[in-house]
Design brief:
Elements (H helix, E strand, L loop, with lengths): L2 H12 L11 H4 L2 E10 L2 E10 L13 E7 L5 H16 L4 H13 L8 E6 L5 E5 L2 E6 L4 H10 L6 H7 L8
Antiparallel strand pairs: 1-2, 2-3, 3-4, 4-5, 5-6
Helix pairs in contact: 1-3, 3-4, 3-5
């Protein structure tokens, strides 16, 4: 798998960080951790990932809204690499890219930022099925297509993920990532 695909997948989530501590929305602060894991590529630690839901369990996107996937980056990664990696991950999971993937990538290119070591990004799947992205506690914007959330989160949580050890850790099935 291309290094940029793995980095991008991590970067995508890293680009997203919901408000934290005092400035968090009540629905976000009430979420409980399902699992956490480390994502590394070769000998580079790229990010720490955390999945949270209202009850600390994950069964499906339909049953577990709202849901938070938060990435804390351990390396600098460009926005362009994030977007490219996201497209690579969708192609790896689905066999080919559809027009919706290209449309979503264009939206992400407008929302996301370059990340630096220590930046925290999050993807928040709201109860209405829409996705909010935040970066270091500052809102980046909303993807209003209800189909986006599951396909984006499948990069980490789907059965066809390219990071199965991290998936297991995020789903709370072990204490380690990949």
């Amino acid at each position: 798998m291309r290094k940029s695909s793995l980095i991008a997948a991590g970067v995508l989530f890293a680009l997203l960080s919901l408000p934290s501590q005092a400035d968090e929305a009540p629905s976000v602060t009430a979420l409980k951790t399902v699992g956490e894991g480390q994502f590394s590529y070769l000998f580079w630690d790229l990010y720490q990932a955390r999945l949270a839901t209202s009850d600390g369990q994950f069964f499906s996107y339909q049953q577990n809204k709202p849901l938070l996937l938060e990435l804390t980056y351990q390396r600098d990664i460009s926005k362009a690499d994030f977007v490219e990696a996201t497209l690579d991950q969708w192609k790896a999971q689905q066999g080919s890219l559809q027009q919706r993937h290209r449309d979503w990538a264009a939206q992400l290119d407008k929302l996301w930022r370059d990340v630096k070591k220590g930046d925290r990004l999050a993807c928040f799947l709201r109860a209405d099925g829409l996705v909010e992205f935040s970066f270091n506690g500052q809102p980046l914007g909303l993807v209003e297509d209800p189909a986006f959330g599951a396909e984006f989160l499948d990069i980490w949580l789907g059965e066809k993920t390219t990071a199965p050890k991290l998936r297991i850790a995020l789903l709370g099935r072990n204490k380690n990532g990949s």
